[in-house]
Write a structure and sequence with these properties.
mainly alpha, about 75% helix, about 0% strand
Length: about 300
């Protein structure tokens, strides 16, 4: 018996969004005019609602999978913390705040990246990828909203991981919700763009998941990049956002205290990589359709 859960695809969610809008109109009494029997087209609100509900269903139906991800993340942090304390001693204790913030951002980044790249690979394997084309919203918007829904779920699980890390280490950080959500959200937006690019390559070349997963370990290098010594590193994904998040959570600096240049650069990097990743994704899927390999596996 296979252990893989029954796929609930984004196309199913998009289709149900359209059907729910149609059924709602059919059940509502209308005036007997010429346009009364025409169904009202589904909007992006219906799509977003359906995709978020899909994520909720996946969490409720398969809680062991979500819980397992949290336990694995905490296990690796435990190895990092207790193993590092045995080796480095006091030196690790003095820098534990930065390690916790960096690890928190890393869990968010991995979730945002895999939300697009790995899920598209699964759609290809299940043979349900072509159903995205038949939705009234198009391929890319469904994938984008699906990624946003995954990011929301990742924020919730990463918040649990952060709370456990703080409790285990006895560390106190400045947790200003608006500041943390805005900076962390913009930081991982660039990673979402990388996920789009990786997802497009997956659609075109299929079985390359092992190569794409290597990028997750590269996030560690980006998060720990020495942006003070090499300012040009701020143009890379996660690097500038990691530096701002460290200042916000360790030093207690609020969002309004950051300079306009710092925030503007954070927005520009996020938008640039998201837009670039979207273009790669769009080109790769168009090429896959032209070659007739969109649904092949």
């Amino acid at each position: 018996m296979s252990d893989d859960p029954e796929p609930i695809t984004a196309a199913d969610a998009a289709g149900s969004a359209g059907r729910s809008s149609t059924h709602a109109d059919a059940a509502t009494p209308t005036e007997p005019d010429a346009t009364s029997n025409e169904p009202r087209p589904a909007t992006y609100y219906h799509l977003a609602k359906a995709v978020l509900y899909r994520e909720y269903l996946l969490f409720v139906r398969y809680p062991a999978n979500a819980t397992g991800g949290i336990i694995v993340a905490l296990f690796f942090f435990g190895v990092l913390f207790y193993g590092g304390r045995l080796v480095a001693g006091r030196a690790l204790t003095d820098s534990i705040e930065g390690i916790i913030v960096g690890y928190f951002l890393w869990t968010l980044s991995v979730g945002a990246y895999s939300s697009v790249s790995n899920d598209l690979g699964s759609e290809v394997q299940w043979g349900t990828l072509e159903r995205h084309i038949t939705t009234p919203f198009g391929f890319a918007p469904v994938a984008l909203l699906k990624g946003v829904a995954k990011v929301v779920r990742t924020f919730l699980t990463s918040a649990i991981i952060l709370a456990v890390m703080l409790a285990v280490t006895g560390t106190q950080l400045s947790l200003q919700p608006i500041t943390v959500i805005v900076i962390a959200g913009l930081s991982i937006t660039s990673v979402l763009g990388l996920g789009f690019a990786a997802g497009g390559v997956t659609v075109l070349y299929k079985r390359i998941g092992n190569w794409l997963n290597l990028l997750q370990f590269g996030f560690v290098v980006l998060i720990s990049a020495p942006v003070l010594d090499a300012p040009w590193l701020r143009l890379l994904p996660l690097a500038h956002g990691s530096a701002l998040l460290q200042r916000a959570m360790v030093d207690g600096i609020s969002l309004w205290a950051f300079s306009f240049v710092d925030l503007g650069l954070l927005v520009a990097v996020a938008g640039g990589y998201l837009g670039g990743g979207y273009l790669v994704f769009h080109y790769a899927t168009r090429r896959a359709r032209r070659l007739g390999v969109l649904g092949d596996y």
